Amino acid sequence: MTNLVEINNLHFAYGDRPILTGLTMQFPRNKVVAVMGGSGSGKTTILRLIGGLIAPNSGDVKLLGESIAPTNSETLYKQRRNMGMLFQHGALFTDLTVFENVAFPLREHTNLSEDLLRDLVLLKLNAVGLRNAAQLKPSEISGGMARRVALARAVALDPQLIMYDEPFAGLDPISMGVTANLIRNLNDALGSTSILVSHDVHESFGIADYVYFLSQGSIVAAGTPAEMLASQHPYVQQFVNARADGPVPFHYPGKSLAQDLGLGGGA
Ligand SMILES: Nc1ncnc2c1ncn2[C@@H]1O[C@H](COP(=O)(O)OP(=O)(O)OP(=O)(O)O)[C@@H](O)[C@H]1O
């Protein structure tokens, strides 16, 4: 099986508001795949569906050929064991040291001896350059370092799938580059598959094998970063060139301003 994750003709709505409409995507093994799209286009929703936090209305998400089972806690628990997630606001536990933050998933999911656990945690911290910060508390490290600790924690169990939601948000340019390289290197060292949700074209294109552009609930363009840079698709062009005007909507969908102000007029 070449795809670790497959999404087939998936529909999802929050209440009566459709978010994803006929979404089909593939995430091949050992690849870093970026998912890009305007604010509110449904990128985080895709990660939540893959993580089984929410269930599709129709269509399905498969991990290793098996449907993600949000309603079967035993199956979902096993599937989650194969996933590392770095969510947008995935903060560290502030009262635990850096070491204990990374040890947390190992303590939760395994019965490793203290010695083995210590070695594994130190290896993960070493991979993100923070072995010597193991005994510090989150309040004693920088934002970029905290992101790297969260990264070490996300890969503590050597997951086959690693999902990143806006991993570059709020980082200075150097930390951004460091984080991007880490995402690529961890993916290759672990032989895993990474899904990267990000607005940052430069960093994402620098490390991704493949890029999906999401708009209005489905994929509007996809290809390698080089293909996307050469694409004439107006949506891709607006994104890649960071233009304020274009098909990427600025307004949250709903009534027009004229309607809201009681001036009549169309949508
Ligand atoms: N729990 C929820 N209940 C209702 N609507 C929600 C919920 N979570 C998200 N939404 C809506 O679903 C849409 C898609 O949200 P999502 O977070 O997936 O977008 P996104 O592409 O990740 O956006 P951003 O880049 O701004 O983080 C948004 O319009 C949002 O308002």
From TrEMBL:
MF annotations from Gene Ontology: ATP binding; ATP hydrolysis activity
Matches recorded under SUPFAM superfamilies: P-loop containing nucleoside triphosphate hydrolases
Protein known as: ABC transporter ATP-binding protein
Record InterPro entries: AAA+_ATPase, ABC_transporter-like_ATP-bd, ABC_transporter-like_CS, P-loop_NTPase
Keywords recorded for this protein, A-Z: ATP-binding, Cell membrane, Membrane, Nucleotide-binding, Transport
Entry superkingdom: Bacteria
Stretches assigned to the ABC transporter domain: 5-241
